[in-house]
């Protein structure tokens, strides 16, 4: 099969769909891989690395896109819609619940669009292609939050770890899944006071075994959210509802009651966000101030650490890419987990969660 790897076009997105080591595996399986020139530079992979692995370097995006299987990292931007075509398999993060325009175009063009974030398997690691980036985003959320709490960055000048004689900063995390857990690990390590709120009592019990008394664990309801958010120096949105738009847990009126200069980092922004006042930003312009609070809403946070994140992503996606390359669309019949990743196929929305978001687009 011919596989295309275009260079990412999202603002400062330096990850790449296939690393040279992944290309080598696919090449050894008899496939032809076409990598757009400099697609891997930001992650530390040169064109020479890809050539050594068996890829062909192509100069233009359309040449990389014009393949049976296209492997990316982030969703196609409007400038890339022209490359989507019927009979093509697109394998990437899509997050369609927050992108009606892309959803409509995928329906129109007939591309088989498989989303990393909805590939689902049984067992504890049920979202195998979302998990590695959730781990990274969770850890980065505290790292970025700590930076923007600095006065020079617009924050209130709080050191999360505090110092002897001065209390530490307070980190409130909405959601105790992978993102929330990883954020808490970093926040605890920095010496902050940490609260996690979640609606899953079993998950809270697990988190107690993990953190013990170092983290305050609360059942998530409106009263607990209101009290916690008002006191937060750093609020992290870590809510995930598979395939659906994130629910708004923090309304504008509550944001108004936060301390001036406090920081919100909403990792759920790629699914619409869980804070009413937060909208998507970019690595170039990551924050804005609204209601006196610093808002950070970069939807591709792991793109800030591409050397780490590109390899972590490839470690998880490669087995599925190999299966798609070897079997084509028949891989969906062989692998039920991969089949659950299909969002749009044959001009129709097929994923139930996306159908619920866009019922008027369901034929």
TrEMBL record:
<comment type="pathway">
    <text>Amino-acid degradation; L-alanine degradation via dehydrogenase pathway; NH(3) and pyruvate from L-alanine: step 1/1.</text>
</comment>
<feature type="binding site">
    <location>
        <position position="74"/>
    </location>
    <ligand>
        <name>substrate</name>
    </ligand>
</feature>
<dbReference type="InterPro" id="IPR007698">
    <property type="entry name" value="AlaDH/PNT_NAD(H)-bd"/>
</dbReference>
<feature type="binding site">
    <location>
        <position position="15"/>
    </location>
    <ligand>
        <name>substrate</name>
    </ligand>
</feature>
<feature type="binding site">
    <location>
        <position position="134"/>
    </location>
    <ligand>
        <name>NAD(+)</name>
    </ligand>
</feature>
<dbReference type="GO" id="GO:0005886">
    <property type="term" value="C:plasma membrane"/>
</dbReference>
<protein>
    <recommendedName>
        <fullName>Alanine dehydrogenase</fullName>
        <ecNumber>1.4.1.1</ecNumber>
    </recommendedName>
</protein>
<dbReference type="InterPro" id="IPR008143">
    <property type="entry name" value="Ala_DH/PNT_CS2"/>
</dbReference>
<feature type="binding site">
    <location>
        <position position="220"/>
    </location>
    <ligand>
        <name>NAD(+)</name>
    </ligand>
</feature>
<feature type="domain" description="Alanine dehydrogenase/pyridine nucleotide transhydrogenase N-terminal">
    <location>
        <begin position="4"/>
        <end position="137"/>
    </location>
</feature>
<feature type="domain" description="Alanine dehydrogenase/pyridine nucleotide transhydrogenase NAD(H)-binding">
    <location>
        <begin position="149"/>
        <end position="297"/>
    </location>
</feature>
<feature type="binding site">
    <location>
        <begin position="239"/>
        <end position="240"/>
    </location>
    <ligand>
        <name>NAD(+)</name>
    </ligand>
</feature>
<dbReference type="Pfam" id="PF05222">
    <property type="entry name" value="AlaDh_PNT_N"/>
</dbReference>
<feature type="active site" description="Proton donor/acceptor">
    <location>
        <position position="95"/>
    </location>
</feature>
<dbReference type="InterPro" id="IPR007886">
    <property type="entry name" value="AlaDH/PNT_N"/>
</dbReference>
<feature type="binding site">
    <location>
        <position position="203"/>
    </location>
    <ligand>
        <name>NAD(+)</name>
    </ligand>
</feature>
<keyword id="KW-0547">Nucleotide-binding</keyword>
<dbReference type="InterPro" id="IPR008141">
    <property type="entry name" value="Ala_DH"/>
</dbReference>
<comment type="similarity">
    <text>Belongs to the AlaDH/PNT family.</text>
</comment>
<dbReference type="Pfam" id="PF01262">
    <property type="entry name" value="AlaDh_PNT_C"/>
</dbReference>
<feature type="binding site">
    <location>
        <begin position="298"/>
        <end position="301"/>
    </location>
    <ligand>
        <name>NAD(+)</name>
    </ligand>
</feature>
<feature type="active site" description="Proton donor/acceptor">
    <location>
        <position position="270"/>
    </location>
</feature>
<dbReference type="GO" id="GO:0000166">
    <property type="term" value="F:nucleotide binding"/>
</dbReference>
<dbReference type="GO" id="GO:0042853">
    <property type="term" value="P:L-alanine catabolic process"/>
</dbReference>
<feature type="binding site">
    <location>
        <position position="198"/>
    </location>
    <ligand>
        <name>NAD(+)</name>
    </ligand>
</feature>
<dbReference type="GO" id="GO:0000286">
    <property type="term" value="F:alanine dehydrogenase activity"/>
</dbReference>
<keyword id="KW-0520">NAD</keyword>
<keyword id="KW-0560">Oxidoreductase</keyword>
<dbReference type="InterPro" id="IPR036291">
    <property type="entry name" value="NAD(P)-bd_dom_sf"/>
</dbReference>
<feature type="binding site">
    <location>
        <begin position="267"/>
        <end position="270"/>
    </location>
    <ligand>
        <name>NAD(+)</name>
    </ligand>
</feature>
């Amino acid at each position: 099969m011919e596989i295309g790897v275009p260079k990412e076009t999202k603002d400062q997105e330096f990850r790449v769909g296939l690393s040279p080591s992944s290309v080598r595996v696919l090449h050894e399986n008899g496939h032809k891989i076409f990598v757009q020139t400099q697609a891997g530079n930001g992650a530390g992979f040169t064109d020479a690395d890809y050539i050594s692995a068996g890829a062909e370097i192509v100069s233009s995006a359309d040449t990389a896109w014009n393949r049976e299987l296209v492997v990316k990292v982030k969703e196609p931007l409007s400038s890339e819609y022209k490359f989507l075509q019927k009979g093509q398999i697109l394998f990437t993060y899509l997050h369609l619940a927050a992108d009606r325009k892309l959803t409509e175009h995928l329906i129109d063009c007939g591309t088989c669009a498989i989303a990393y974030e909805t590939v689902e398997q049984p067992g504890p690691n049920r979202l195998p292609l979302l998990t590695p980036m959730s781990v990274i985003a969770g850890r980065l959320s505290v790292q970025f939050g700590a930076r923007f709490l600095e006065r020079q960055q617009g924050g209130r000048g709080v050191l999360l770890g505090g110092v002897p004689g001065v209390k530490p900063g307070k980190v409130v995390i909405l959601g105790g899944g992978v993102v929330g857990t990883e954020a808490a690990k970093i926040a605890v390590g920095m010496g902050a006071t940490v609260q996690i709120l979640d609606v899953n009592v079993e998950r809270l019990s697990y988190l107690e075994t993990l953190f013990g008394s170092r983290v305050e664990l609360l059942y998530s309801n409106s009263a607990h959210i209101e009290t916690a958010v008002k006191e937060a120096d750093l609020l992290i949105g870590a809510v995930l509802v598979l395939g659906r738009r994130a629910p708004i847990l923090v309304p504008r009126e509550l944001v108004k009651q936060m301390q001036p200069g406090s920081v919100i980092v909403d990792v759920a922004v790629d699914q619409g966000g869980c804070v009413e006042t937060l909208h998507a930003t970019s690595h170039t312009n990551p924050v804005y101030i609204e209601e006196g609070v610093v808002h950070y809403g970069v939807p591709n946070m792991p793109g800030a650490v591409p050397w780490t994140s590109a390899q972590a992503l490839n470690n998880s996606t490669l087995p599925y890419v190999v299966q798609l390359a070897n079997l084509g669309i028949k891989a969906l019949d062989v692998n039920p987990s991969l089949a659950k990743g299909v969002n749009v196929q044959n001009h129709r929305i097929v994923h139930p969660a996306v159908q619920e978001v866009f019922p008027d687009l369901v034929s």
